[in-house]
Design goal:
Blueprint: E1 2-3, E2 6-7, E3 16-19, H1 20-38, E4 49-52, E5 58-61, H2 64-70, H3 76-91, H4 96-115, H5 120-141, E6 143-144, H6 150-161, H7 170-183, E7 195-201, E8 209-216, E9 228-237, H8 257-281, E10 285-288, H9 294-302, E11 306-308, H10 313-323, E12 327-328, E13 340-350, E14 353-359, E15 367-373, H11 376-399, E16 401-404, H12 408-421, H13 428-439, H14 441-449, H15 454-466, E17 472-475, E18 480-483, E19 490-492, H16 493-512, E20 515-518
Parallel strand pairs: 7-15, 9-10, 9-12, 10-11
Antiparallel strand pairs: 1-2, 3-20, 4-5, 6-16, 8-14, 8-15, 9-13, 13-14, 16-19, 17-18
Helix pairs in contact: 1-3, 1-4, 2-3, 3-4, 3-16, 4-13, 4-16, 5-12, 5-13, 5-16, 6-7, 6-11, 7-11, 8-9, 12-13, 14-15
Bound molecules: adenosine-5'-diphosphate (ADP) and magnesium ion.
Length: 543
């Protein structure tokens, strides 16, 4: 860049800049590579990935969002795809592999169009219109479910867990998931924050249980406190039974031993006052978010009060909701009205550890799923699978709409979009068509992952969908193309809508970038940090 012959330097030395076609190509490549890396995990016969981090910790999973998260990618576009899967997980809880695969397919098709000389902005516009139409089509093919139709809800949970390690137990776990969701349902719908999931390695998945109430991975703090309290009156305290630093902030200048004695006595007094307050309001169980000092433990134990310390804030909130207690900070202001209640609170051994059960809570819109399983790896994967299942069942209870799976909705949308494409005169037609073809990737990969011949499957599916059989899809387990209505593979409509729209948005965003300016430190698009290819030719590290 120069002005009247004088070069003007606007970028820091070492900054890498790639522009125009190169920048776009590099980004597209990176997106495709990352999405290709997880396609083999899609569907009920998708393979699991074993990921080992730099500390040697191992995760075995089939969950798209988890795979991407653990992959620790450095390319900014690859990171972007990882974020995409994460937000799919947060929004709707399932379809994370699907969203990453679709984003990659949209990019692949875009690359072909770029090769034939079509401008990125035309592709973006075509994709935008195709997406709008796609969402309409999904809405049309979706069907309504009654929010308490257990058999449908079970099938939704089973479909979502079907592709995970734990699928042999999915029948049993699906019942737990549906029970849990229906147990916390109110007029306002289902908030899965009211379902707590705890895990403890040991026994096997069939020992996983649903508890009406809350389970904490905690112990009673003092051995001589009661381990079981019936008709519990519960105090929730978010300050400690200890003398906080601020109460004795000043420096102590002790000149003779009696002063120290006095000081300790005063400390003890403060703690004793706090304990006395608990006794006065009539609580027999205390959950404390902070610490409980030895002396306080001793005093509480003497009064026969059960106490638990260092309870997580999120658990305190759950306890408040379920028991009706108010969380109190200033103990001196506490009254009887601040107490909550529970039928019983008990400490019980699960595996090698003690856990706390708060059961028969009056505002019982709170339940816990306690996961058991052979090893940490199993309970971790079970937790992810149960999380997904809870989300999909919640989605359907809250929105009441479903589609059948096996790639049938993607195929149906694809078929409709191909017809829709004909209504465009300009080059957008090609982009809409490309978008439609990209959607076929879902049934194609489902077929591929089950060892079927993908092209045969697509030919069969296309012809079915041209005849308007919009529920036809792939059944990888039976290795055939069939009417998925007869297979019980059911998914919430929101998962499909979210996956298509956010994958498309991501692809559009990548297509709009024509200039990558990366500081040396970040490495920038296209290469490892500081490496020779920084900001350069390809996403080499993913090959
Ligand atoms: P995601 O992370 O995208 O949810 P999954 O590995 O769970 O990925 O696979 C989901 C895809 O697999 C969906 O398209 C769904 O319809 C399909 N699917 C799941 N179970 C079956 C099944 N039993 N038969 C056919 N398709 C299935
Ligand atoms: Mg899934």
């Amino acid at each position: 860049m120069s002005l009247a012959g004088t070069p003007i330097i606007i970028l820091k030395e070492g900054t890498q800049r790639t522009r125009g076609r190169d920048a776009l190509r590099n980004n597209i490549r990176a997106g495709i590579i990352i999405s290709d890396a997880i396609r083999s995990a899609l569907g009920p016969l998708g393979r699991d990935k074993m990921l080992v981090d730099s500390f040697g910790d191992v995760v075995i999973t089939n969950d798209g969002a988890t795979i991407l998260k653990e992959m620790d990618v450095t390319h900014p576009i690859a990171k972007f795809i990882v974020e995409l899967a994460k937000s799919q997980d947060q929004e709707v809880g399932d379809g994370t592999t699907t969203v990453a695969v679709l984003a990659g397919e949209f990019l692949k098709k875009a690359e072909e169009l770029l090769d034939s000389g079509i401008h990125p902005s035309v592709i973006v516009e075509g994709y935008r219109m195709a997406t709008k139409k796609a969402l309409e089509v999904i809405e049309e093919i979706g069907t309504d479910v009654k929010e308490d139709d257990r058999s449908i809800l079970r099938k939704i949970a089973i479909t979502s867990m079907g592709s995970k390690v734990i699928s042999t137990y999915s029948d049993y776990l699906a019942d737990l998931v549906v029970d849990a969701v229906l147990a916390v349902k109110t007029e306002k719908g289902v908030d899965i924050d009211n379902i707590k999931v705890e895990k403890k390695a040991g026994e096997d998945l069939s020992n996983t249980h649903l508890i009406k109430g809350i389970v904490l991975d905690k112990e009673v703090v003092h051995p001589s406190m009661p381990k079981k309290v019936e008709n519990a009156k519960i105090a929730l305290v978010d300050s400690g039974f200890e003398v906080s630093k601020t109460e004795f902030n000043a420096e102590l200048n002790i000149t003779d031993p009696s002063q120290l004695q006095q000081f300790i006595e005063r400390e003890t007094e403060i703690i004793a006052e706090k304990v006395q307050k608990i006794v006065d309001v009539g609580a027999n169980v205390v959950f404390c978010q902070k610490g409980i000092e030895d002396i306080a433990q001793h005093l509480l134990a003497k009064k026969g009060i059960m106490a638990v310390r260092r309870v997580k804030k999120s658990d305190m909130e759950k306890l408040a909701k379920a028991t009706g207690a108010h969380i109190v900070t200033e103990l001196k202001d506490m009254t009887e009205d601040d107490l909550g209640s529970a039928g019983k609170v008990h400490q019980t051994k699960i595996g090698d550890d003690d856990m706390l059960f708060i059961e028969d809570t009056p505002y019982s819109k709170s339940v816990t799923i306690l996961i058991r399983g052979g090893t940490e790896l199993v309970v971790d994967e079970a937790e992810r699978a149960i999380h997904d299942a809870l989300c999909v069942v919640r989605n359907v209870v809250n929105t009441g709409k479903i589609v059948v799976g096996g790639g049938s909705p993607e195929m149906a949308v694809s078929a409709k979009l191909l017809k829709y494409a004909d209504s465009f005169k300009g080059k957008e037609q090609l982009a809409v068509r490309a978008f439609a073809e990209a959607l076929e990737a879902i049934p194609r990969i489902l077929a591929e992952n089950s060892g079927m011949e993908p092209l045969d499957v697509l030919v069969e599916l296309r012809s079915a969908h041209q005849q308007g059989k919009h529920t036809f899809g792939v059944n990888p387990l039976e290795r055939k193309v069939m009417d998925m209505k007869d297979s019980g593979v059911i998914e919430p409509i929101v998962v499909k809508k979210q996956a298509i729209s956010s994958a498309s948005e991501a692809a559009q965003m990548i297509l709009r970038i024509d200039d990558v300016i990366a500081s040396k430190e970040t490495g920038g698009a296209g290469g490892p940090p500081g490496g020779p290819g920084a900001g350069g030719e390809d996403g080499g590290e993913f090959d």
